[in-house]
Amino acid sequence: MSTTAIRDQLRAISFLDGLTDSAYHQLARLVTAVHYKADEILFEEGSPRSFLALVVNGTVAIEKQMNGRPIRLVTLGAGEAVGEGLLLDDSKHGTSARAIHSTDVLILRAEKAQEMVKEHPQLYAALIGRAARAISQRLAATDATIVGRGRTL
User: Fold this and answer.
1) What is the pLDDT of residue 65?
2) 34, 109 Cβ separation under 8 angstroms
3) Is residue 74 within 8 Å of 43, Cβ to Cβ?
4) In what order do the strands lie in the sheet with 60-66?
5) How many CA atoms lie within 13 A of 144 on its CB side?
6) 131-144: per-residue pLDDT in tens?
7) Which of 44, 76, 81, 110 could pair with 15 in a Cys bridge, judged by C-beta atoms 3.0 to 4.6 Å apart?
């Protein structure tokens, strides 16, 4: 896929809203397109963080093991990010991510994120702010789900 086509896909991702044209161009050179089949695992709870996925189309379930079975905490779709904790620290995944349907994502691998820190620090800072906001919103939704005030499972 060409850098131009990837840049166009990035512009449609709401997680990235407000980036500059230059930032979209820089990011397009760092990500790769990946396809996940329905029920394919993106990452598992307890595994090392290795990428940030930007969902182009499809849906991803974020799940947590409780009493030996997976509980869906949230469902993410086109325009959202999965695994954004990669930008914040090197802790292991606290949840699992599974494609519910056929899903296409743009992947920013850990080594490319480290390259971004050195070569494009403003882009990295912009992504950190978006990641923190997304995680905060997701935690609030998860809290509501767990205590029964939010979405039903």
Assistant:
1) 86
2) no
3) no
4) 41-43, 96-99, 60-66, 69-76
5) 11
6) 888 777 767 655 55
7) 81
Q: Alpha-carbon distance 31 to 15, whole Å?
A: 15
Of 73, 72, 76, the residue nearest 143 (C-alpha):
73
Helix or strand or coil: residue 152?
A: coil
Q: Tokens for 95?
A: 């949840």
Mean of the per-residue pLDDT values of the chain: 89
21-28 and 3-11 are packed helices; what angle lies between their axes, rounded to 10 degrees?
130
Q: What is the pLDDT of residue 2?
A: 87
Ramachandran assignment for 148, one of left (phi > 0), alpha (psi -120 to 50 degrees), beta (any other): left
Query: pTM for this structure?
Result: 0.87
Residue type, 41: I
- Interatomic CA distance for residues 58 and 97, integer angstroms: 13
The four Cα atoms 92, 98, 104, 110 give a dihedral, to 10 degrees, of 10
Q: What is the pLDDT of residues 65-102, one digit of tens each?
A: 888 888 888 899 999 999 998 998 888 999 999 999 99
- CA 67 to each of CA 64, 71, 94, 141, 151: distance values in angstroms, whole numbers, following the listed order: 10, 9, 15, 21, 20
Which residue in this structure is represented by tokens 């296409």?
104
